[in-house]
Amino acid sequence: MAKARVLVIEDEKDILELLCYNLEKEGYAVNGVESGEEALKAARSLHPNLILMDLMLPGMDGFEITRLLKSDDQLADIPIIMLTAKGEEADIVTGLELGAEDYITKPFSPKVVIARIRTVLRRDRKNKPALPEVIHLHNIEIDPVRFEVLVDTTPVSLTATEFHILHFLIRHPGWVFTRAQIIDSVKGDDYPVTDRSVDVQIVGLRKKLGDAGQLIQTVRGVGYRLKE
After folding, report:
1. What is the overall mean pLDDT for the chain?
2. What is the per-residue pLDDT across 43-87, written as a single tens digit (0 to 9) for each?
3. Where do the domains of the chain lie, and which CATH numbers do they carry?
4. DSSP for 5-71, written as a single string
5. Percent helix, percent strand, percent coil in the chain, to nearest 5
6. Long-range contacts of 2-6 (CB under 8 A, 24+ apart)
7. What is the tens place of the pLDDT at every residue in 31-45?
């Protein structure tokens, strides 16, 4: 299993080195930066599993960094733990309201920092839905996350509807589905599509899949299935 990556943002060099040293010792992959500008650049290039950040940074402070991260669809899911000055309750409240997951007050114990990081990462994994798996059947590979279909490793360009029909059928090889069931699975049960339009989509899908299109079988009087 790949190491969890932690991005540490701290402008005090001694504290930054202390945190990086202890996190690396615990088996984390660690990157340390000293400014908000570096932090945003590192977050975009590394997409770490967690950000540990001092709120009181020169120039762009931790509040602004948090605001920018949480407003970016690509970065908003990264959990943030704030490092705050002891007793700064207003800062803690503001940081949490902006979307930070937890806070640690200075001075801190490295053991406490590591325990908090473990807790947040554990909670984050539990709350995140599992990504749909890449499916391989016969010579077809379909990746729901990348919205990609390969036949014999060659990419096949499908429309969104064709993709969803293929994904539905390939998840249930050998099962026979009526046209109405296919419509419901792809568009929802209130989508105004006729049985005929499913037939048209299947014809287009078979054509684009080439020889692999023969795997989509017609069951007369019922509907369609993907060969087991």
Report:
1. 86
2. 988 889 999 999 888 888 899 999 999 888 888 889 999 998 766
3. 5-127 (3.40.50.2300), 135-226 (1.10.10.10)
4. EEEEE-SSHHHHHHHHHHHHHTT-EEEEESSHHHHHHHHHHH--SEEEEES--SSS-HHHHHHHHHT
5. 45, 20, 35
6. 3/27, 3/28, 3/29, 4/28, 4/29, 4/49, 4/50, 4/121, 5/29, 5/30, 5/31, 5/46, 5/48, 5/49, 5/50, 6/30, 6/31, 6/48, 6/49, 6/50, 6/51, 6/52, 6/117
7. 999 998 899 999 988
Tokens describing residue 224: 């369609």
How many whole angstroms separate alpha carbon 120 and alpha carbon 126? 10
9-12 — which CB contacts under 8 Å span 24+ positions?
9/33, 9/34, 9/35, 9/36, 9/38, 9/39, 9/51, 9/52, 9/53, 9/54, 9/57, 9/62, 9/65, 10/34, 10/52, 10/53, 10/54, 10/83, 11/35, 11/54, 11/57, 11/58, 12/54
d(CA 181, CA 184): 5
pTM, to two decimals: 0.56
